[in-house]
Amino acid sequence: MRRLASVVSVAAVAIVVGVSAQTPGYLGGETSGFVGAEQDAAIKGPYSEPAEPFKILGNIYYVGAQNISSYLITTPEGHILFDTGMPQMHDVVRTNIETLGFQLSDIEIIISSHAHVDHVGGHAEMQRATGASIMAMGLDAQAIESGMDISPVQYHDWPAAPVARVLEDGDTVSLGGTTLRAMLTAGHTPGATTWVTNVEDGGRFYNVVFPGGRTPNGGPLVVGNPDFPDVAEITLETFSKLRLLNPDILLPGHPQGAFEGKIDAMKAGVRPHPLLETPGDWARGLEAGEANFRRRMEADRAKTQTP
Ligand SMILES: [Zn+2]
Predict the structure, then answer these.
(1) pTM as predicted
(2) Residue 167 in 3-state DSSP?
(3) Ligand 1 centroid distance, CA of 209 (Å)
(4) Centroid of ligand 1 to alpha carbon of 187 (angstroms)
C-alpha cells in the first residue's frame, strides 16, 4: 500500500511504525514510481559501490561511495559524520573511516543533507555502531524517525533511526572547536538542510558549504499538488536564502560531477584547492536553477488549470 503523502499524517504514522529492524543489504520498500527504473538502479547499484576515502581539506574527509557522499569531520573531541548514504553502504563508510585511521566509536554526531534514502538510509545502523547522536532539521527529523520519505518524490523508505536533537533554521552543531550552521533550505525535502562551516587549511580559511538539495525531484507537481500546496513558495524562498552564501568549496551529496578529474589532486594536497569555486559560479548556478524551477512551475500551472 502506498504511504500517505500528507505531512500531517507522518507524526501519527511514526508512532505506529516505531523503529524498524535493520535488514542487512536492505533494498526493500516500495518506490513511488517518480524515480525512473534506470535512476533507481543507479542509486542502488553503481552509486553505492565502494570508493577510496581521502582527505578533502582541513579536518574534512570523503568516506562515501562512488556517487553517494558521506563526509567525516574530525575534531579532538570526537567526530561528526555527515550523511550515511544508502542502507547497504554501511560497510563502505565504516571501512573508509577505519582505513583513514579513525575509530567508529569516536563518532559523536550524525547529521544529514536531507531525508532521502540515499543520504539517511544508513543512519540507523551507523547510530547503533557508533552510539552517536543523530541531529536533523524539523520535518526531516520526523522522516528519519519514521523511516519514511515525506518529500514530494516519496522515493523510498529506510530503516528508522532515533533523532536525539531536532534542529531549527540557523541552529549550530559544535564539537571540539568545529561549528557547523544548519540552514533550512526546504523544497527537495521539507527539512532539507544546507550546512555551512569555516575550515582552516594550510593557514587559509575556507567557507565550506554542504548543499541540502534545492528543488523537488522531477515528477510530482510543484503547483497544484494537494499534498504539497506550498512547495513552490518554499523552494523559491530557499533560492533566496542560498543567494546569501558565498562558498569557497561545495561538498555535494552526489559528488561524481564535482570531483571528476580532481580526486588525485585532492589526495596529493594540491593548492589552490581543486574544488575551489570560480567567483560568480554559485550565483550563476542559482540563477539558472531558479529559472528552470520557474519554468517547471509554469508548466505545472498550465497542467492543473481547468480549461
Ligand atoms: Zn534527494
Answers:
(1) 0.90
(2) strand
(3) 17
(4) 10
CA of 108 to the centre of ligand 1 (A): 24
Report CA(114)–ligand 1 centroid distance (Å).
Answer: 7
How many Å lie between the centroid of ligand 1 and the Cα of residue 121? 11
User: What would the pLDDT profile of 55-69 be if each residue is shown by its tens digit?
Assistant: 999 999 999 999 999
Query: Which whole-number Å values give the CA distances from 107 to 96, 161, 266, in the listed order?
Result: 13, 16, 24
In degrees, rounded to 5, the angle at the alpha carbon of residue 111 between the alpha carbons of residues 9 and 220 is: 40
229 CA → ligand 1 middle, Å = 20
Phi first, then psi, for residue 183 (nearest 5°) are -105, 125
Dihedral of CA atoms 83, 85, 91, 96 in degrees, nearest 10, equals -50
Contact 216, 231 (CB under 8 A): yes
Neighbours of ion ligand 1 (CB under 5 A): 116, 213
224-256 confidence digits (pLDDT tens): 999 999 999 999 999 999 999 999 999 999 999
Q: Among 124, 123, 118, which residue's Cα sits nearest to residue 213?
A: 118
Distance CA 295, CA 64 (A): 34
Q: Could you tell me which of 38, 93, 46 has the C-alpha nearest to residue 256? A: 46
Sorted by where each starts, the structural domains of the chain and their CATH numbers stand as: 8-12+29-35+47-304 (3.60.15.10)
What is the 79 CA–ligand 1 centroid distance (Å)? 24
| Phi (first) and psi of residue 248, to 5 degrees | -85, -35
Grid coordinates representing 155 are 522515493
